[in-house]
Amino acid sequence: MDENNIAIHVQHENGEVVTLEAPTDMGLSLMEFLKASEYDILATCGGMALCATCCVDILEGEEKLNEMSDDEYAMLDTLPDLLPNSRLACQLKLSPALNNLKLKLH
């Protein structure tokens, strides 16, 4: 794997885990990367933390994530099926610290 890439593990509904190679040198958010990887994420607001349609559940690596902003928390709080490990993918920038992050789409 290239030094500017990290591994992101996506768990599908059937339990299958797919490992994706994500670039950290392009300034992408996790949402942008997942959309580019053809995952079905609406991202209606375009990454402004205004719609919660890019919500993901972090299965491994939650301790590596940046602290949740008030805006992100407020938007997640509107979801009926919010989990303690739920985050907005638009608010997570890809960085070397996120290597081996494991998630499932909400």
UniProtKB/TrEMBL annotation:
It holds the Pfam family Fer2. Residues 4-106 form the 2Fe-2S ferredoxin-type domain. The keyword Nuclease does not apply. Its cofactor is [2Fe-2S] cluster. Keywords: 2Fe-2S, Iron, Iron-sulfur, Metal-binding. It comes from the Bacteria. This is 2Fe-2S iron-sulfur cluster-binding protein. It comes from Pedobacter flavus. The lineage of its organism: Bacteria, Pseudomonadati, Bacteroidota, Sphingobacteriia, Sphingobacteriales.
